[in-house]
Amino acid sequence: MTSNIKSVAFFGASTGVGLAAMKHTLAAGHKCIALCRDPSKLTAIFPSESTPNLKVIKGNAHDISAVSQCLQTDDATIVNVIVSTIGAKPTGMTVDDPDVCKKGAATVLDALAQLRSTGITGTPHIIGCSTVGFSRFGRDIPIVMIPIYYLFVKVPGADKVVMEDRFAQSGEPFTIIRASHLVDGESDKTIRVGIEDPKTGPESKAVGYTISREDAGRWLAENLILKIDEKYVNKNVTVTY
């Protein structure tokens, strides 16, 4: 593997932000390893004969064995980047798994420790996909959106806060991307970015209503994978229109 080709592990890339980010990563010629409970969801989009840089592994993001497979390259090193966009499915006023993100973060970190204990080396940049609305440093959503987030996002939001903390306190380089309310449709709209230090608070603010999954995924790929802008490392980053 040449030094300018990155290896990227994706968790939750069968849809949404993760899928968009992986499309742009593959298009740029990088190697991707994706964990998927139903690999046919990805192979239908990325046929193996035309996408040699993608390896799809069947499994669950809470299974340390499957996760460990995704974190290793063919050269027996740890991948350069880890992207986790897993999330729970809404079921009325709550979600099907209120602990999906915190368990996923713990599994990734445990898998890294396990691999290193066997002599496999590497220091990946971990990217976790979270949400606005739950900053400890004040309001980061429009005032009119507060009731919606309180009623419908409170449970998954609390889960994502724990995920954020686990990555931030892990000692691994990380970036948390907090997207505003996700909608569909790629666009050429300007994406505004806010940066928050997990310890000291906002460095810049961006408060908005929505961003599309496709645009958020493209921004993630362009700014955190294809190149890594250092100002986003070890920060919480808001993306919105």
Automatic annotation (TrEMBL):
- A Pfam family found in this protein is NAD_binding_10
Under InterPro entries, the record lists: NAD(P)-bd_dom, NAD(P)-bd_dom_sf, Polyketide_Oxido-like
Q: Which domain of life is it from?
A: Eukaryota
Q: Which SUPFAM superfamilies match?
A: NAD(P)-binding Rossmann-fold domains
Give every NAD(P)-binding domain span.
12-223
Recorded GO terms, molecular function? biliverdin reductase [NAD(P)H] activity; riboflavin reductase (NADPH) activity
The family note in this entry says: Belongs to the avfA family.
Name-wise, this protein is NAD(P)-binding domain-containing protein
Q: Kindly list the organism's lineage.
A: Eukaryota, Fungi, Dikarya, Ascomycota, Pezizomycotina
